[in-house]
Protein backbone atom coordinates (compact mmCIF):
# COMPACT_ATOMS: atom_id res chain seq x y z
CA UNK A 1 0.00 0.00 0.00
CA UNK A 2 1.58 3.27 -1.00
CA UNK A 3 2.36 5.77 1.74
CA UNK A 4 0.12 8.77 1.98
CA UNK A 5 1.60 12.17 1.23
CA UNK A 6 0.31 15.60 2.04
CA UNK A 7 -1.13 17.92 -0.57
CA UNK A 8 2.11 19.85 -1.04
CA UNK A 9 4.02 16.65 -1.73
CA UNK A 10 6.56 17.28 1.05
CA UNK A 11 6.50 13.74 2.44
CA UNK A 12 4.45 11.13 4.27
CA UNK A 13 1.74 12.18 6.69
CA UNK A 14 2.59 11.51 10.48
CA UNK A 15 -0.25 9.77 12.37
CA UNK A 16 -0.85 10.27 16.14
CA UNK A 17 0.02 7.24 18.37
CA UNK A 18 -2.86 4.93 19.23
CA UNK A 19 -4.54 5.56 22.64
CA UNK A 20 -3.21 3.44 25.56
CA UNK A 21 -5.66 1.38 27.62
CA UNK A 22 -5.38 -0.87 30.63
CA UNK A 23 -5.69 -4.53 29.72
CA UNK A 24 -8.80 -6.25 31.03
CA UNK A 25 -7.07 -9.50 31.98
CA UNK A 26 -5.32 -10.15 35.41
CA UNK A 27 -1.59 -9.65 35.66
CA UNK A 28 0.49 -11.96 37.91
CA UNK A 29 3.78 -11.03 39.55
CA UNK A 30 6.81 -13.09 38.74
CA UNK A 31 7.40 -16.19 40.83
CA UNK A 32 10.54 -14.87 42.52
CA UNK A 33 8.63 -11.76 43.68
CA UNK A 34 5.94 -13.92 45.34
CA UNK A 35 8.59 -16.01 47.07
CA UNK A 36 10.34 -12.86 48.36
CA UNK A 37 7.08 -11.56 49.78
CA UNK A 38 6.39 -14.88 51.53
CA UNK A 39 9.88 -14.87 52.97
CA UNK A 40 9.33 -11.38 54.36
CA UNK A 41 6.06 -12.48 55.96
CA UNK A 42 7.73 -15.54 57.48
CA UNK A 43 10.61 -13.40 58.76
CA UNK A 44 8.20 -10.91 60.32
CA UNK A 45 6.28 -13.72 62.03
CA UNK A 46 9.55 -15.19 63.30
CA UNK A 47 10.63 -11.83 64.68
CA UNK A 48 7.28 -11.44 66.44
CA UNK A 49 7.65 -14.88 68.04
CA UNK A 50 11.18 -14.06 69.15
CA UNK A 51 10.00 -10.77 70.59
CA UNK A 52 7.20 -12.52 72.48
CA UNK A 53 9.61 -15.14 73.81
CA UNK A 54 12.07 -12.47 74.89
CA UNK A 55 9.36 -10.65 76.82
CA UNK A 56 8.91 -13.76 78.91
CA UNK A 57 12.51 -13.36 80.10
CA UNK A 58 13.02 -9.60 79.95
CA UNK A 59 10.59 -6.70 79.91
CA UNK A 60 11.08 -3.82 77.49
CA UNK A 61 11.35 -0.37 78.98
CA UNK A 62 8.16 1.65 78.94
CA UNK A 63 5.79 -1.31 78.97
CA UNK A 64 2.25 0.02 79.54
CA UNK A 65 0.35 -0.81 82.69
CA UNK A 66 -2.29 -3.52 82.38
CA UNK A 67 -5.93 -2.48 82.79
CA UNK A 68 -8.01 -5.22 84.44
CA UNK A 69 -11.79 -5.19 84.42
CA UNK A 70 -12.91 -8.02 86.71
CA UNK A 71 -11.68 -10.47 89.31
CA UNK A 72 -10.99 -13.25 86.80
CA UNK A 73 -8.67 -11.04 84.76
CA UNK A 74 -6.94 -10.03 87.98
CA UNK A 75 -6.34 -13.64 89.01
CA UNK A 76 -5.19 -14.60 85.53
CA UNK A 77 -2.80 -11.65 85.36
CA UNK A 78 -1.41 -12.47 88.83
CA UNK A 79 -0.92 -16.13 87.88
CA UNK A 80 0.89 -15.23 84.64
CA UNK A 81 3.10 -12.70 86.40
CA UNK A 82 3.86 -15.11 89.23
CA UNK A 83 4.87 -17.92 86.89
CA UNK A 84 7.05 -15.55 84.88
CA UNK A 85 8.74 -14.17 88.01
CA UNK A 86 9.31 -17.67 89.36
CA UNK A 87 10.83 -18.86 86.08
CA UNK A 88 13.17 -15.90 85.82
CA UNK A 89 14.16 -16.24 89.47
CA UNK A 90 14.86 -19.96 89.03
CA UNK A 91 17.09 -19.33 86.02
CA UNK A 92 18.98 -16.51 87.73
CA UNK A 93 19.62 -18.49 90.90
CA UNK A 94 20.52 -21.65 88.98
CA UNK A 95 22.90 -19.69 86.72
CA UNK A 96 24.61 -18.11 89.73
CA UNK A 97 24.93 -21.52 91.39
CA UNK A 98 26.46 -22.99 88.23
CA UNK A 99 29.05 -20.19 88.08
CA UNK A 100 29.96 -20.73 91.72
CA UNK A 101 30.10 -24.51 91.18
CA UNK A 102 32.47 -24.21 88.22
CA UNK A 103 34.84 -22.17 90.37
CA UNK A 104 35.10 -25.20 92.67
CA UNK A 105 36.03 -27.65 89.91
CA UNK A 106 39.70 -27.44 90.78
CA UNK A 107 39.02 -28.71 94.31
CA UNK A 108 36.49 -31.40 93.38
CA UNK A 109 37.25 -34.83 91.85
CA UNK A 110 36.05 -35.43 88.29
CA UNK A 111 33.47 -38.05 89.26
CA UNK A 112 31.59 -35.60 91.48
CA UNK A 113 31.49 -32.64 89.09
CA UNK A 114 28.35 -33.78 87.29
CA UNK A 115 26.53 -34.20 90.60
CA UNK A 116 27.76 -30.75 91.65
CA UNK A 117 26.32 -29.11 88.52
CA UNK A 118 23.07 -31.05 88.88
CA UNK A 119 22.68 -29.93 92.47
CA UNK A 120 23.52 -26.33 91.49
CA UNK A 121 20.66 -26.27 88.97
CA UNK A 122 18.02 -28.43 90.65
CA UNK A 123 18.97 -27.94 94.28
CA UNK A 124 16.68 -26.58 96.96
CA UNK A 125 18.15 -23.09 96.73
CA UNK A 126 16.91 -22.58 93.16
CA UNK A 127 13.39 -23.73 93.99
CA UNK A 128 13.32 -21.72 97.23
CA UNK A 129 14.31 -18.53 95.45
CA UNK A 130 11.75 -19.13 92.70
CA UNK A 131 8.99 -19.87 95.23
CA UNK A 132 9.84 -16.70 97.15
CA UNK A 133 9.16 -14.54 94.10
CA UNK A 134 5.93 -16.34 93.14
CA UNK A 135 3.82 -14.33 95.56
CA UNK A 136 0.47 -12.49 95.42
CA UNK A 137 2.00 -9.31 94.00
CA UNK A 138 -1.25 -8.08 92.44
CA UNK A 139 -3.06 -7.72 95.76
CA UNK A 140 -3.69 -3.95 95.41
CA UNK A 141 -5.98 -4.66 92.43
CA UNK A 142 -8.34 -6.65 94.65
CA UNK A 143 -8.86 -3.64 96.91
CA UNK A 144 -11.64 -1.24 95.76
CA UNK A 145 -10.34 1.81 93.98
CA UNK A 146 -11.11 5.36 95.12
CA UNK A 147 -14.67 6.45 94.39
CA UNK A 148 -13.51 9.49 92.41
CA UNK A 149 -10.43 8.69 90.36
CA UNK A 150 -8.30 11.58 89.18
CA UNK A 151 -9.26 13.03 85.79
CA UNK A 152 -7.41 11.68 82.79
CA UNK A 153 -6.15 13.95 80.00
CA UNK A 154 -7.62 11.52 77.48
CA UNK A 155 -11.18 12.27 78.63
CA UNK A 156 -13.00 14.91 76.61
CA UNK A 157 -13.53 18.19 78.37
CA UNK A 158 -16.45 20.59 77.89
CA UNK A 159 -14.20 23.61 78.18
CA UNK A 160 -11.85 23.59 75.22
CA UNK A 161 -10.15 26.83 76.22
CA UNK A 162 -8.43 25.25 79.25
CA UNK A 163 -6.91 21.91 78.34
CA UNK A 164 -6.60 19.29 81.04
CA UNK A 165 -3.10 18.92 82.46
CA UNK A 166 -1.78 16.00 84.47
CA UNK A 167 -0.87 16.30 88.10
CA UNK A 168 2.74 17.44 88.21
CA UNK A 169 5.24 15.25 89.98
CA UNK A 170 7.48 17.46 92.05
CA UNK A 171 11.05 16.32 91.79
CA UNK A 172 13.13 19.06 93.37
CA UNK A 173 16.81 18.26 93.40
CA UNK A 174 16.20 14.84 91.78
CA UNK A 175 15.98 14.02 88.10
CA UNK A 176 13.74 11.19 86.93
CA UNK A 177 15.75 8.71 84.88
CA UNK A 178 12.83 7.25 82.90
CA UNK A 179 12.77 6.78 79.16
CA UNK A 180 10.39 9.00 77.19
CA UNK A 181 7.77 6.27 76.83
CA UNK A 182 8.09 5.22 80.46
CA UNK A 183 7.87 8.83 81.64
CA UNK A 184 4.77 9.45 79.52
CA UNK A 185 3.20 6.29 80.91
CA UNK A 186 4.05 7.39 84.45
CA UNK A 187 2.53 10.85 84.08
CA UNK A 188 -0.57 10.15 81.95
CA UNK A 189 -1.75 6.61 82.44
CA UNK A 190 -0.62 5.17 85.79
CA UNK A 191 -3.53 4.67 88.13
CA UNK A 192 -3.23 6.30 91.52
CA UNK A 193 -4.36 4.21 94.47
CA UNK A 194 -4.43 4.65 98.21
CA UNK A 195 -1.00 4.16 99.70
CA UNK A 196 -2.20 1.68 102.27
CA UNK A 197 -3.31 -0.64 99.44
CA UNK A 198 0.26 -1.20 98.28
CA UNK A 199 1.60 -1.20 101.86
CA UNK A 200 -0.85 -3.93 102.91
CA UNK A 201 -0.16 -5.95 99.76
CA UNK A 202 3.59 -5.64 100.22
CA UNK A 203 3.42 -6.63 103.88
CA UNK A 204 1.32 -9.72 103.18
CA UNK A 205 3.23 -10.76 100.06
CA UNK A 206 6.62 -10.15 101.67
CA UNK A 207 5.82 -12.04 104.86
CA UNK A 208 4.55 -15.04 102.88
CA UNK A 209 7.34 -14.99 100.29
CA UNK A 210 10.24 -14.81 102.73
CA UNK A 211 9.02 -17.97 104.46
CA UNK A 212 10.19 -20.01 101.46
CA UNK A 213 13.81 -19.01 102.01
CA UNK A 214 16.15 -20.48 104.60
CA UNK A 215 15.89 -19.11 108.09
CA UNK A 216 19.45 -17.80 107.89
CA UNK A 217 18.60 -15.67 104.83
CA UNK A 218 15.26 -14.26 105.92
CA UNK A 219 16.73 -11.52 108.09
CA UNK A 220 19.03 -10.24 105.34
CA UNK A 221 16.18 -10.13 102.79
CA UNK A 222 13.83 -8.37 105.22
CA UNK A 223 16.55 -5.86 106.11
CA UNK A 224 17.17 -4.91 102.49
CA UNK A 225 13.46 -4.46 101.78
CA UNK A 226 13.11 -2.36 104.92
CA UNK A 227 15.99 0.02 104.16
CA UNK A 228 14.89 0.35 100.51
CA UNK A 229 11.48 1.40 101.76
CA UNK A 230 13.11 3.92 104.08
CA UNK A 231 15.16 5.25 101.17
CA UNK A 232 12.10 5.75 99.01
CA UNK A 233 10.14 7.36 101.85
CA UNK A 234 12.98 9.77 102.58
CA UNK A 235 13.34 10.74 98.91
CA UNK A 236 9.59 11.30 98.64
CA UNK A 237 9.64 13.45 101.78
CA UNK A 238 12.54 15.57 100.56
CA UNK A 239 10.86 16.09 97.18
CA UNK A 240 7.66 17.37 98.73
CA UNK A 241 9.09 19.40 101.61
CA UNK A 242 12.29 20.67 100.00
CA UNK A 243 14.30 19.43 102.98
CA UNK A 244 17.75 18.20 101.95
CA UNK A 245 20.90 17.20 103.84
CA UNK A 246 24.09 17.91 101.86
CA UNK A 247 26.03 14.69 101.31
CA UNK A 248 23.45 12.85 103.37
CA UNK A 249 24.38 9.46 101.94
CA UNK A 250 28.02 9.95 102.97
CA UNK A 251 26.99 11.06 106.46
CA UNK A 252 24.72 8.04 106.81
CA UNK A 253 27.50 5.72 105.66
CA UNK A 254 29.92 7.21 108.20
CA UNK A 255 27.42 6.74 111.03
CA UNK A 256 26.78 3.14 109.96
CA UNK A 257 30.50 2.38 109.80
CA UNK A 258 30.92 3.85 113.28
CA UNK A 259 28.50 1.28 114.67
CA UNK A 260 29.83 -1.59 112.54
CA UNK A 261 33.49 -1.04 113.49
CA UNK A 262 32.54 -0.67 117.15
CA UNK A 263 30.67 -3.96 116.93
CA UNK A 264 33.58 -5.68 115.16
CA UNK A 265 36.01 -4.91 118.01
CA UNK A 266 33.62 -4.84 120.96
CA UNK A 267 30.45 -6.82 120.20
CA UNK A 268 31.13 -9.21 117.30
CA UNK A 269 28.14 -11.31 118.37
CA UNK A 270 25.84 -8.56 117.06
CA UNK A 271 27.13 -9.02 113.50
CA UNK A 272 26.34 -11.87 111.13
CA UNK A 273 29.04 -14.54 111.26
CA UNK A 274 29.77 -14.35 107.52
CA UNK A 275 29.91 -10.55 107.59
CA UNK A 276 32.24 -10.56 110.61
CA UNK A 277 34.61 -12.95 108.83
CA UNK A 278 34.54 -10.79 105.69
CA UNK A 279 35.40 -7.67 107.69
CA UNK A 280 38.25 -9.47 109.47
CA UNK A 281 39.68 -10.65 106.16
CA UNK A 282 39.34 -7.18 104.64
CA UNK A 283 41.22 -5.63 107.57
CA UNK A 284 44.33 -7.66 106.76
CA UNK A 285 45.12 -8.24 110.44
CA UNK A 286 45.47 -11.72 111.89
CA UNK A 287 42.61 -13.32 113.80
CA UNK A 288 44.80 -13.44 116.90
CA UNK A 289 45.49 -9.68 116.79
CA UNK A 290 41.77 -8.93 116.41
CA UNK A 291 41.00 -11.26 119.33
CA UNK A 292 43.58 -9.45 121.49
CA UNK A 293 41.91 -6.11 120.73
CA UNK A 294 38.49 -7.53 121.64
CA UNK A 295 39.76 -8.98 124.91
CA UNK A 296 41.41 -5.69 125.87
CA UNK A 297 38.21 -3.78 125.12
CA UNK A 298 36.01 -6.16 127.12
CA UNK A 299 38.07 -6.97 130.25
CA UNK A 300 41.48 -5.28 129.87
CA UNK A 301 43.39 -8.55 129.40
CA UNK A 302 44.38 -10.84 126.55
CA UNK A 303 45.32 -14.48 126.12
CA UNK A 304 49.07 -15.07 125.92
CA UNK A 305 48.39 -17.97 123.55
CA UNK A 306 47.40 -15.42 120.93
CA UNK A 307 50.91 -13.96 121.14
CA UNK A 308 52.35 -17.48 120.78
CA UNK A 309 50.37 -18.00 117.57
CA UNK A 310 51.56 -14.65 116.21
CA UNK A 311 55.16 -15.61 117.01
CA UNK A 312 54.72 -18.73 114.88
CA UNK A 313 54.19 -16.62 111.76
CA UNK A 314 56.99 -16.74 109.23
CA UNK A 315 56.89 -12.99 108.49
CA UNK A 316 57.65 -11.77 112.03
CA UNK A 317 60.77 -9.61 111.99
CA UNK A 318 63.33 -9.90 114.83
CA UNK A 319 62.55 -6.51 116.39
CA UNK A 320 58.85 -7.30 116.66
CA UNK A 321 59.61 -10.80 117.96
CA UNK A 322 61.60 -9.29 120.82
CA UNK A 323 58.80 -6.82 121.64
CA UNK A 324 56.17 -9.58 121.58
CA UNK A 325 58.25 -11.83 123.85
CA UNK A 326 58.58 -8.94 126.29
CA UNK A 327 54.80 -8.38 126.25
CA UNK A 328 54.26 -12.11 126.80
CA UNK A 329 56.61 -12.12 129.77
CA UNK A 330 54.85 -9.17 131.39
CA UNK A 331 51.42 -10.70 130.79
CA UNK A 332 52.53 -14.00 132.36
CA UNK A 333 54.06 -12.37 135.44
CA UNK A 334 52.67 -12.10 138.95
CA UNK A 335 50.85 -9.80 138.97
CA UNK A 336 50.27 -9.80 135.21
CA UNK A 337 50.80 -6.60 133.27
CA UNK A 338 48.81 -6.43 130.04
CA UNK A 339 49.42 -2.76 129.33
CA UNK A 340 46.82 -0.18 128.41
CA UNK A 341 46.36 -1.24 124.79
CA UNK A 342 47.46 -4.10 122.51
CA UNK A 343 50.99 -3.62 121.17
CA UNK A 344 51.24 -2.46 117.57
CA UNK A 345 53.84 -5.18 117.00
CA UNK A 346 51.03 -7.75 117.22
CA UNK A 347 48.87 -5.90 114.68
CA UNK A 348 51.61 -5.59 112.03
CA UNK A 349 54.37 -8.08 112.97
CA UNK A 350 55.96 -7.94 109.50
CA UNK A 351 57.10 -4.29 109.85
CA UNK A 352 58.44 -2.37 112.85
CA UNK A 353 57.53 1.23 112.08
CA UNK A 354 53.86 2.19 112.03
CA UNK A 355 54.60 4.69 109.25
CA UNK A 356 55.49 1.83 106.90
CA UNK A 357 52.08 0.17 107.23
CA UNK A 358 49.54 2.29 105.24
CA UNK A 359 50.97 2.08 101.69
CA UNK A 360 51.56 -1.72 101.62
CA UNK A 361 48.18 -2.23 103.25
CA UNK A 362 46.59 -0.01 100.60
CA UNK A 363 48.03 -2.07 97.76
CA UNK A 364 47.19 -5.41 99.38
CA UNK A 365 43.54 -4.56 99.96
CA UNK A 366 43.25 -3.05 96.46
CA UNK A 367 44.40 -6.31 94.85
CA UNK A 368 42.09 -8.30 97.13
CA UNK A 369 39.03 -6.16 96.38
CA UNK A 370 39.56 -5.74 92.63
CA UNK A 371 37.94 -9.04 91.48
CA UNK A 372 35.06 -8.58 93.95
CA UNK A 373 34.12 -5.12 92.71
CA UNK A 374 34.86 -6.17 89.13
CA UNK A 375 31.98 -8.63 89.29
CA UNK A 376 29.71 -6.01 90.90
CA UNK A 377 30.38 -3.55 88.06
CA UNK A 378 30.43 -5.86 85.04
CA UNK A 379 27.49 -8.17 85.81
CA UNK A 380 24.84 -5.40 86.23
CA UNK A 381 26.10 -3.84 83.00
CA UNK A 382 25.54 -7.11 81.12
CA UNK A 383 22.13 -7.67 82.73
CA UNK A 384 20.57 -4.20 82.64
CA UNK A 385 22.49 -2.36 79.90
CA UNK A 386 22.87 -4.97 77.19
CA UNK A 387 21.90 -2.69 74.30
CA UNK A 388 24.34 0.01 75.37
CA UNK A 389 27.07 -2.60 75.81
CA UNK A 390 26.48 -4.09 72.34
CA UNK A 391 26.36 -0.69 70.66
CA UNK A 392 29.37 0.80 72.49
CA UNK A 393 31.39 -2.07 73.98
CA UNK A 394 34.67 -0.18 74.36
CA UNK A 395 33.03 2.73 76.14
CA UNK A 396 31.01 0.50 78.48
CA UNK A 397 33.97 -1.74 79.30
CA UNK A 398 36.10 1.31 80.04
CA UNK A 399 33.38 2.77 82.25
CA UNK A 400 33.01 -0.50 84.19
CA UNK A 401 36.78 -0.83 84.51
CA UNK A 402 37.15 2.71 85.84
CA UNK A 403 34.30 2.07 88.29
CA UNK A 404 36.06 -1.09 89.49
CA UNK A 405 39.25 0.88 90.12
CA UNK A 406 37.35 3.55 92.09
CA UNK A 407 35.49 1.01 94.22
CA UNK A 408 38.66 -0.96 94.97
CA UNK A 409 40.47 2.26 95.86
CA UNK A 410 37.60 3.21 98.18
CA UNK A 411 37.83 -0.02 100.20
CA UNK A 412 41.64 0.06 100.21
CA UNK A 413 41.65 3.67 101.46
CA UNK A 414 39.10 2.76 104.15
CA UNK A 415 41.24 -0.08 105.53
CA UNK A 416 44.53 1.81 105.26
CA UNK A 417 43.14 4.92 106.97
CA UNK A 418 41.65 2.86 109.80
CA UNK A 419 44.93 1.00 110.27
CA UNK A 420 46.74 4.34 110.43
CA UNK A 421 44.24 5.59 113.02
CA UNK A 422 44.81 2.55 115.28
CA UNK A 423 48.52 3.26 115.44
CA UNK A 424 48.06 7.05 115.54
CA UNK A 425 45.71 7.03 118.54
CA UNK A 426 48.28 5.12 120.60
CA UNK A 427 50.90 7.70 119.68
CA UNK A 428 48.52 10.56 120.55
CA UNK A 429 47.87 8.99 123.95
CA UNK A 430 51.56 8.72 124.72
CA UNK A 431 52.20 12.33 123.66
CA UNK A 432 49.30 13.77 125.64
CA UNK A 433 50.17 11.71 128.73
CA UNK A 434 53.74 13.00 128.75
CA UNK A 435 52.76 16.67 128.57
CA UNK A 436 53.73 18.66 131.69
CA UNK A 437 52.89 22.26 130.82
CA UNK A 438 49.58 21.85 129.00
CA UNK A 439 47.55 18.87 130.17
CA UNK A 440 44.12 17.96 128.86
CA UNK A 441 41.46 16.39 131.10
CA UNK A 442 42.17 12.76 131.88
CA UNK A 443 38.89 11.64 130.28
CA UNK A 444 39.92 13.10 126.91
CA UNK A 445 43.36 11.49 127.07
CA UNK A 446 41.94 8.09 128.02
CA UNK A 447 39.49 8.26 125.11
CA UNK A 448 42.31 7.45 122.69
CA UNK A 449 42.85 4.04 124.34
CA UNK A 450 39.20 3.30 125.03
CA UNK A 451 36.97 1.00 123.00
CA UNK A 452 35.08 3.99 121.61
CA UNK A 453 38.21 5.24 119.86
CA UNK A 454 37.83 2.35 117.38
CA UNK A 455 34.34 3.60 116.52
CA UNK A 456 35.80 7.04 115.74
CA UNK A 457 38.28 5.33 113.45
CA UNK A 458 35.37 3.76 111.59
CA UNK A 459 33.82 7.19 111.08
CA UNK A 460 37.08 8.66 109.79
CA UNK A 461 37.76 5.71 107.52
CA UNK A 462 34.27 5.94 106.02
CA UNK A 463 35.14 9.38 104.64
CA UNK A 464 36.90 7.49 101.85
CA UNK A 465 33.41 7.05 100.39
CA UNK A 466 34.00 10.32 98.52
CA UNK A 467 36.36 8.36 96.26
CA UNK A 468 33.34 6.45 94.96
CA UNK A 469 31.03 7.71 92.25
CA UNK A 470 28.20 9.83 93.61
CA UNK A 471 25.40 7.51 92.52
CA UNK A 472 27.18 4.57 94.18
CA UNK A 473 27.37 6.25 97.57
CA UNK A 474 23.68 5.76 98.26
CA UNK A 475 23.92 2.07 97.33
CA UNK A 476 26.82 1.53 99.74
CA UNK A 477 24.96 3.39 102.47
CA UNK A 478 21.92 1.16 101.91
CA UNK A 479 24.18 -1.88 102.14
CA UNK A 480 25.73 -0.79 105.45
CA UNK A 481 22.52 0.53 107.04
CA UNK A 482 20.83 -2.84 107.79
CA UNK A 483 24.08 -4.20 109.25
CA UNK A 484 24.42 -1.20 111.54
CA UNK A 485 20.74 -1.21 112.53
CA UNK A 486 20.83 -4.90 113.41
CA UNK A 487 24.00 -4.47 115.48
CA UNK A 488 22.66 -1.40 117.28
CA UNK A 489 19.33 -3.14 117.94
CA UNK A 490 20.96 -6.27 119.37
CA UNK A 491 23.27 -4.15 121.51
CA UNK A 492 20.37 -2.13 122.87
CA UNK A 493 18.30 -5.26 123.41
CA UNK A 494 21.17 -6.85 125.34
CA UNK A 495 21.14 -3.85 127.66
CA UNK A 496 17.37 -4.08 128.09
CA UNK A 497 16.66 -0.78 126.33
CA UNK A 498 14.31 -2.14 123.65
CA UNK A 499 12.02 -5.11 123.12
CA UNK A 500 11.77 -7.73 120.40
CA UNK A 501 9.84 -6.67 117.28
CA UNK A 502 10.08 -6.37 113.47
CA UNK A 503 8.25 -5.14 110.34
CA UNK A 504 8.43 -5.09 106.50
CA UNK A 505 6.40 -4.06 103.40
CA UNK A 506 7.29 -0.42 102.68
CA UNK A 507 9.29 -0.95 99.51
CA UNK A 508 6.30 -2.05 97.39
CA UNK A 509 4.26 0.91 98.63
CA UNK A 510 6.92 3.29 97.29
CA UNK A 511 7.18 1.31 94.04
CA UNK A 512 3.41 1.47 93.52
CA UNK A 513 2.95 5.19 94.20
CA UNK A 514 6.35 6.93 93.87
CA UNK A 515 8.75 4.62 91.96
CA UNK A 516 10.95 7.53 90.88
CA UNK A 517 12.16 7.87 94.49
CA UNK A 518 13.71 4.40 94.53
CA UNK A 519 17.26 3.87 93.34
CA UNK A 520 17.70 2.93 89.70
CA UNK A 521 18.98 -0.60 90.45
CA UNK A 522 16.09 -1.45 92.79
CA UNK A 523 13.53 0.05 90.41
CA UNK A 524 14.83 -2.03 87.47
CA UNK A 525 14.78 -5.23 89.51
CA UNK A 526 11.22 -4.65 90.73
CA UNK A 527 10.14 -3.72 87.19
CA UNK A 528 11.46 -6.98 85.77
CA UNK A 529 9.80 -9.17 88.40
CA UNK A 530 6.60 -7.20 89.09
CA UNK A 531 6.11 -5.08 85.98
CA UNK A 532 4.51 -1.65 85.63
CA UNK A 533 1.89 -0.58 88.17
Please give a structural write-up.
The chain is mostly helical and 533 residues long. The protein has helices spanning 31-57, 71-102, 113-122, 124-133, 139-142, 180-189, 195-209, 215-241, 248-266, 273-283, 287-299, 304-311, 318-331, 344-347, 358-384, 386-391, 393-433, 442-447, 452-462, 470-494, 506-513, 520-530. Helix 2 (71-102) packs antiparallel against helix 3 (113-122), helix 2 (71-102) packs antiparallel against helix 4 (124-133) and helix 9 (248-266) runs antiparallel to helix 19. Mean pLDDT is 76; it is low at 136-176 and 500-505.
Low-confidence stretches: 136-176, 500-505
Number of strands: 0
Spatial shape: elongated
Sheet with the most strands, sense and barrel status:
none
Task: Give the helices and strands as they follow along the chain.
Answer: HHHHHHHHHHHHHHHHHHHHHH
Q: Find the structural class using helix and strand composition.
A: mainly alpha
Q: Assess the beta-strand content as a share of residues.
A: under 5%
Mean pLDDT across every amino acid position: 76
Number of helices: 22
Helix fraction bin: 55-70%
N-end to C-end Cα span: 88 Å
Gyration radius over CA: 35 Å
Amino acid sequence: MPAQVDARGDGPVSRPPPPSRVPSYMQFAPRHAIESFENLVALANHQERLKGARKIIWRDRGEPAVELEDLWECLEHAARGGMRAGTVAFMLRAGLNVILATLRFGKEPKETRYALIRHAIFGKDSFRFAAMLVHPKRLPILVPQPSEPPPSPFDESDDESEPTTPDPITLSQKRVRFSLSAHAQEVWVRKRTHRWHAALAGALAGSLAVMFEKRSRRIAIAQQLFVRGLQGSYNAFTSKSGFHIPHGEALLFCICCTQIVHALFCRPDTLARSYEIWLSNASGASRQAIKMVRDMNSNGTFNVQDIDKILQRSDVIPANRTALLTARTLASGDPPDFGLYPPCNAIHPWVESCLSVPIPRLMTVFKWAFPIYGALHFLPMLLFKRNAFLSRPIHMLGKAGFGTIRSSAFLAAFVASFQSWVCLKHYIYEVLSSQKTFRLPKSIINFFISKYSYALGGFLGALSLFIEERRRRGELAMYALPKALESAWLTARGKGWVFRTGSAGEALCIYQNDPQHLSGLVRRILYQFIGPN
